[in-house]
Design goal:
Length: about 160
């Protein structure tokens, strides 16, 4: 297991869909940025999820950016480094790397400014930190997720 993070695309909001949803379903955007629908039955729900995965837009599953942040051990290593100066990384520690396997939660768009500031504080020195490579990759991936969230005005999901 590991920790994945992603940002949903905004193709629905920009009316940039390649095809209409099956059966004329009414779509809405959930609080996590995902396009969803109240399908009347299981068959309609399966048709909707298949449409969303491969036919709705150019993004598979309507996800603009997705990153594997690391397995449980890598996330624990990153968390260990950030905990050395925990006061500088409250969002990262409490909402991102608190677990190497959390799912079904998200960072609200309103937290992105503070998350960006926290990310700027990560400056691993390769001579002194065993986790330097993991921290550098983590910083790049979170930065890309922040950019995608800013462009779409959507949360970062896990």
């Amino acid at each position: 297991m590991g920790l994945d993070a992603f940002v949903y695309c905004d193709c629905f909001e920009r009316d940039n869909l390649r095809s209409n949803p099956p059966g004329g379903m009414e779509l809405r955007v959930g609080p996590n940025g995902e396009v969803t629908s109240d399908a009347p039955d299981d068959s309609a729900w399966h048709a909707f999820t298949a449409w969303k995965l491969a036919k709705a837009c150019l993004h598979q599953g309507m996800i603009l950016v997705r990153h594997r942040l690391g397995n449980d051990a890598t996330i624990a290593q990153i968390r260990g480094e950030l905990e050395k100066d925990a006061a500088r990384f409250p969002i990262l520690l409490e909402k991102v790397v608190y677990s190497g396997t959390h799912t079904c939660d998200w960072l609200p768009f309103s937290t992105l400014r503070q998350l960006t500031e926290e990310l700027k504080e990560i400056n691993p020195d390769p001579a002194h930190i065993p986790a330097a490579d993991a921290l550098r990759l983590f910083k790049i991936q979170i930065a890309e997720l922040i950019i995608a969230a800013q462009i779409t005005r959507k949360p970062i999901c896990f």
